[in-house]
């Protein structure tokens, strides 16, 4: 039996990182949030404290429905990171959320990621809970 | 071809030959040995150098550190660090600084022991404490360096119908050139490559997949290595040993993930026109294309972005061995030293693009294109498909 202390775990985000802390705080409630500029309507993602359209600070947090489309993906067959090595083959994908943000995530819920994923596929958020935050994975809709 | 201003030229080059120093040399040693050899190639000495360009491969505070290590007090210190494209930025900046009269002799050096350190550049994965907001949003996915490029390849295939067989053309052309380059062959032997020979499309597409859709033979190697380039004013160049290779134009640009953006177009679409415009030449006039071949898809994307063919048509454009040095009527020869795919890749390959382009324009390549007059060196730093920098330099001889 493997010693549970030696089972590698996913490297988690820093919940206190200043720009992205509000995003991660919302994941605890199962909310996938992004920002929109009140002044110029630009969708801002990854989260920041300013707008990437005008550098203004009048941003509002909005909640995505967690539905989107696979823009592109890859299936990682080789990784030297202890956790991810234990997961190969696994899929990484850029997902276009319906509200506009493009988010990098893992695709789960497919039998064989090397054959069962297509660009343009509809996907939905699939939370992976942790103590301080939840990780927004995606699975086929 | 328009008559360009000739304000700065590459007058000295050196490629450090070993791909495996077996841990017996440091990056600083490789930089120093290469600097001396490149200055000797030019007929200059370290005392002539009044400008330093450094990407930090020798350590922190790099412009200061390397000046002290060499024992010089330069008038210009440029520490632009944009990964593998750093040296194209440095060359363009050196040309600008020389043209402005701030300096006369610029020295660029590079040294790396990535192989000796067993540094898994491509598949190390991320993780560890996030140092930036973007790492904090992405590090947890297990994204590897190669997977960023694979993302571009998949989208390129989806959008334009590009195939793995077409991408493999990049790998077979560079290996074709590598087999004619004794340093590349010795390097592959030192790194214990299997099947050191010319490769076929079949070889490439049947090698194992590293990150779908990219196969092993579409990925660059990890070697030790380094080199140096000396750039000088026309007055200094006139007294140098070798014929000058003029820096005719430069361009630089950034690229990063954009919501709703097109991942199949890179920062080269911005840096390329800037460089070609300054040089007053068109892609159709280029004899030698030294294009950062970290992966097959890098070259395909950059060929399109630099204007050698239309966006999306790169796959059919490269078919049939078109990029080989012995097909001069079909457009430029690609990476005639063997490239990162088959000659050397110590992590930041940009300096070798300048070095081999210079060899071609001097008539010294092991895969020499007859009467080569114009070359482009295009460095891609960071990760295509994610955050990357583009540096384009147009070079020409008298």
Overview of the molecule:
The complex is a heterodimer of chains A (141) and B (398). Chain A is mainly beta and 141 residues long. In chain A, 8% of the residues lie in helices and 38% in strands. Chain A has one domain (14-140): Beta Barrel (OB fold (Dihydrolipoamide Acetyltransferase, E2P)). In chain A, a hairpin with a 4-residue loop joins β7 (122-129) and β8 (134-140). Chain A is globular. The termini of chain A are far apart. The mean pLDDT of chain A is 95. Chain B has one domain: Peroxisomal Thiolase, Chain A, domain 1. In chain B, 35% of the residues lie in helices and 18% in strands. Chain B is built from 14 helices and twelve strands. Chain B has helices at residues 27-42, 62-70, 86-99, 133-138, 145-160, 164-178, 182-190, 201-206, 234-238, 268-279, 296-305, 314-317, 339-342, 350-362; strands at residues 9-15, 51-53, 76-78, 105-112, 209-211, 214-215, 225-232, 245-255, 288-291, 333-334, 374-382, 388-397. A ten-stranded mixed beta sheet of chain B has the order 3-2-4-7-1-8-12-11-9-10, sandwiched between helices. In chain B, strands 5-6 form a two-stranded antiparallel sheet. In chain B, a hairpin with a 5-residue loop joins β11 and β12. Chain A binds chain B through residues 10-14, 17-20, 23-24, 43, 45-48, 71-81, 83-85, 87, 90, 92, 94, 96, 100-106, 114, 119-120, 135, and chain B through 120, 123-130, 133-134, 136-144, 147, 150-152, 154-155, 158, 208-214, 257-261, 263, 385.
Supply the CATH class of chain B: Alpha Beta
Mean pLDDT of chain B: 95
Level-2 CATH architecture of chain A: Beta Barrel
Shape of chain B: globular
Shape of chain A: globular
- CATH class designation of chain A: Mainly Beta
Largest interface between protein chains, with number of residues from each side: A-B, 46 and 41 residues
Q: Which fold name corresponds to the CATH topology of chain A?
A: OB fold (Dihydrolipoamide Acetyltransferase, E2P)
Number of helices of chain B: 14
Task: Tell me the strand percentage band of chain B.
Answer: 15-25%
Counting DSSP E segments of at least 2 residues, the number of strands of chain A comes to 8
Number of extended strands of chain B: 12
> Alpha-carbon distance between the termini of chain B?
12 Å
